[in-house]
Design brief:
This protein has 9 helices and 14 strands. It has about 300 residues and is α/β, with parallel strands linked by helices. It folds into 2 domains: about 160 residues, NAD(P)-binding Rossmann-like Domain (Rossmann fold), CATH 3.40.50.720; about 130 residues, Dihydrodipicolinate Reductase, domain 2 (2-Layer Sandwich), CATH 3.30.360.
């Protein structure tokens, strides 16, 4: 079974971050071309010349309106997601892929949820598709009760902070409360990079700190459990796992010792997204980031 895929929006995440011969798979176009059961139909963009350039790069077609396709991938700007989803849904595809964040405000996000009812929709929260993060979500109970943690990020609480919120929900469960302490104007007027204190239904608190993205890009987490410490470094390229061990020097004391360092497949997360899509369609495997569970109003508070 071969499925045709249309990409809406011809920017970096759609087509720009890599090339057909890159070793890393960083764009939707590359992932689609690498998967044997998908065919890249082409690109649609309001900027026709942009779509033309992407189509030439990836040996695909360019469209001036939405063609019929099995799958529609929404890579348009955040503010255009609702309109793009409306157009995509009207074509009744088998499935929609939506770049994060779902929308720039809660009202639009909730309307998008209504528009896609009956159409399976996967949201690209990248780390959800990385096998090593899925393994950590399973192993997390072995570490004991979550106590506390902190993380740093930049470029908008909705735009990039939603990635951290999603990863926290994957690893630690649902959020019970969130309290904002300050904000940085490093992205847009309506999407500041907020610092927050987050609490979870299962207990524990997490300090999510905003860092000015004009200085550099950063995404890291440090999580402390009863028996272990988990560090997510280099945007998720690396996971360090520490375990509490008795010290040799001081009787009755425990220190955290590095037990394992995992180099993840973050560079191929996009491929795993499409593998999950095909497994869902062909083998009835669950979607890893369906819009119904990817949405949380915490992002829009």
């Amino acid at each position: 079974m071969t499925l045709d895929v249309l990409i809406v929006g011809a920017g970096q995440i759609a087509a720009g971050y890599d090339t057909p011969d890159s070793s890393a798979i960083l764009t939707h176009a590359h992932a689609i071309n690498e998967h044997p059961n998908f065919r890249l139909l082409g690109f649609y963009d309001v900027d026709y010349r942009k779509a033309e350039a992407a189509a030439k790069k990836w040996n695909a077609r360019v469209f001036s309106e939405f063609p019929q396709s099995d799958i529609v991938v929404i890579c348009s700007p955040d503010t255009c997601h609702l309109e793009s989803i409306r157009q995509a849904a009207s074509m009744k595809p088998k499935l929609i892929v939506l770049e994060k964040p779902i929308a720039t405000n809660q009202s639009n996000a909730e309307e998008i949820l209504e528009v896609v009812k009956g159409i399976p929709t996967q949201v690209n929260f990248t780390r959800r598709f990385v096998p090593q993060f899925q393994s950590q979500a399973v192993a997390i109970n072995d570490y004991g009760t979550f106590i506390t943690g902190f993380g740093v990020y930049g470029k908008g609480f909705i735009h990039n902070g939603s990635h951290m919120i999603d990863l926290l929900r994957l690893l630690l469960g649902e959020i019970s409360s969130i309290e904002f302490t300050n904000a940085i104007d490093d992205y847009t007027i309506d999407d500041k990079t907020k610092t927050a204190i987050i609490c979870f239904n299962s207990g524990g608190e997490f300090f999510m700190r905003g860092v000015d993205s004009n200085c550099y890009t950063i995404f890291e987490l440090d999580l402390y459990f009863e028996k272990a410490r988990i560090r997510v470094l280099d945007s998720g390229d690396k996971i360090q796992i520490y375990y509490a061990e008795k010290t040799k020097k001081y009787e009755g004391y425990f220190n955290l010792k590095l037990r394992d360092e995992v180099h993840t497949e973050l560079d191929n997360a996009m491929y795993y997204l499409y593998k999950n899509l095909y497994d869902f369609i062909a083998n009835d495997v669950r979607l890893l980031s369906p819009i119904e569970s990817a949405y949380t109003d915490v992002v829009y508070r």
